[in-house]
Amino acid sequence: MAEKPKLKVSFHDFTSCEGCQLQFLNCEDELLDILGHVEIVQFREAIDDKSDEYDIAFIEGAFTRESDRARLEHIRKCAKVVIAFGACACTGGLNVLKNYRGVKEAMRTVYGDQADWYETSVALPVEAAIKVDYKIHGCPVPKQEILEVVKSVVAGRTPRIPDYPVCVECKLKENACLFHKGQYCLGPIARAGCGAWCPSYGGRCYACRGLISDPNNNAAKDVLEEFGLTVEDIMQEFRLFNGVYDVAQPPDNAHVKSC
Amino acid sequence: MAKDLDINVHHLTRVEGHGNIVVRAADGTVEKCVLEIVETPRVFESMIEGLNWSDTSLLTCRICGICSVGHTLASIQATDNAFGTEITEASYVMRQIMCMAEQMQSHTLHVYFLAAPDAFDAPSVIPLAGSHPEVVKRALKLKKLANTICDVLCGRHIHPISLRPGGFTYLPSKRALVGLKQTILDCYEDIEATVETIASVADKFPGFEREREDISLTHPDEYAFYNGRIKSSKAGEIDTADYEQFIKEKCVKHSTSKHAYNVDESFAVGALARFNNNADQLNEQGKAAAEALGLTAPCYNPFANNFAQTVEIVHCYHEALKWLDKLIAMDLSEADVTPNVVPRAGRGIGVTEVPRGMLVHDYTYDDAGVCTQANCIIPTGMNLGNIDRDMQTYVPSVIDQRSQDEIAHDLEMMVRAYDPCISCSVHLLNVEWV
Ligand code: SF4
Ligand code: SF4
Ligand code: SF4
Predict the structure, then answer these.
(1) In terms of residue numbers, what domain contains B291?
(2) B66 touches chain A (CB under 8 A)
(3) Domains of chain A
(4) Of the candidates A13, A31, A110, which has its C-beta nearest B41's C-beta?
(5) Is residue B25 part of a domain?
(6) N or C: where does chain A have the smaller number of CB atoms within 10 Å of the terminal CB?
(7) What span, in angstroms and rounded, lies between the C-alpha atoms of A23 and A43?
(8) To probe the interface with A, which of B39, B43, B118 has the most A CB atoms within 10 Å?
(9) Contact A234, A162 (CB under 8 A)
(10) pTM here?
(11) Ligand 3: which of A91, A143, A177, A205 to mutate, most ligand atoms within 8 Å of CB?
């Protein structure tokens, strides 16, 4: 039987820390196996080759300057499947924090009078420029989800991405709940899939993987009840990673838009 | 023969972040020769301001996915210093191990994945999997080792979880630590083999030298990584609190990252700078590796940074084992590492060595522990001026002997040897308000 041609995969980075690309390279045990099924044709961080022929494009990083729009549109045109890779690409990630400061002011803080030499604007998710087929959430993306998505796309099925709160995974791991220690945690409304990574190491969940859909109905109600909290209480903490959601809009919107 | 050159390497590959090499020469005279930094400005400092102390390191570790442990170490030292927090011996030892793992992880990635393909004449590590499978398997194994160390000690390597101001929010079990030691021991031969592999391709890196100023941390008792005083090969030593005396910065138009200077117009940081400043303090295995690679201090060949990184992989491997033995012998309970942080108003400076060189985080907090001012100085930013100057010296020296393509290739190798992390260098650095 003739061998199926390998799917061609490309990686592209925009405004990011490149941690999600590294997380892909961190799948050390699976990497050689993955390379048996797909061919990587563009990965600037690791290889010289550049090719515009690819089936699956992984896009890392937020969309933060107008001049990147054409590059994004080009990728969309070349690829059959576009995957927003990591929080920066899915929601703008923590780059969105600068939107609250006012972009001009942020640039002045860093570059002083020379701020005008360089181009930047508000940080937005990749979806603000082009259509995205799948999202791999997280900052960084969990390895297990990279593998699930790669396998699914290769097999032509829809990846299984959880839509229930981190608390569910946290309880399975039998972690002591941080609210018990008097700390805050976004677990009740944050999208699972990371294996309750942070609470398992004593850290609070700050919902780097974004929200579950319809938190009002799907939140971990038992945890909220136990500690006398409402969904709204928890949302206050939300801005660090999820500035693009309505609930976390900056107080002075006009200021941001004028930049 | 007088020659024209027009080199434009757009979006340089196998470096982190976006940069272009631009060279123009007419009639044998070099008119322009720079590394353009075209990465988007990320303006982290302005984002740090207004954050609570417990969030500052969560944000700043995201400056760079590859050095996120290093950024966290600098950040939490700055916060600890600002509040006068003392950490326990156990937390100190755990931080030291993470610091060693960070150098190993990043150097392995650089030496094997980003630099070695040049030496093997391959466009990337991927074709090497076919031609030199043992080399690629070893690279993956060593990279994984450093990840495993971080996974065990702080939850993950990219954006560590339990590594916090004042201590750790999680203590690995003794069983996990003993298991980790075995995993480290299992890589013993791979570390030796790394030196052999790099030594076998040593002659592929050009022999070019330009005298320079080296800046790094230095420590009375050890080859400095985690902390120490700041040493310049030309200006002596200063306390970390006075870092601005040695690191002066300016904006340049061709780069969204600022350039730095001190005694000379530019200076170097990174593995080779550390080696040049502190080679005597390498452990015995590190010294043996340097000898095998023919590396002696001071060495002014920028391509030799790859060798200095290899030496540090060996050194850090054995230091990590030493620190881990100490930790295992301690018999700890969670209370021995639990952070105990009481915020107060003040300024704190954290300086640490990350794989690419010295890193500075400087925060000012108000009495509620909210950050009111922040300054981070990234090693790649400090090296950029030096990279430009190396290229400007190199090109005229070979313009008559080598073709345009060969020169472009050499320059790519040279820039790559510095292991620039462009994504984390664009922003930051002190602003001179004029
Ligand atoms: S999502 Fe996080 S880890 Fe991934 S690129 Fe963005 S900042 Fe880095
Ligand atoms: S609130 Fe946080 S710590 Fe508590 S169960 Fe949910 S995820 Fe775990
Ligand atoms: S626990 Fe929360 S913050 Fe941590 S990785 Fe999971 S979703 Fe992200």
Answers:
(1) 44-425
(2) yes
(3) 7-155 (3.40.50.700), 166-244 (no CATH)
(4) A110
(5) no
(6) N
(7) 13
(8) B43
(9) no
(10) 0.88
(11) A205
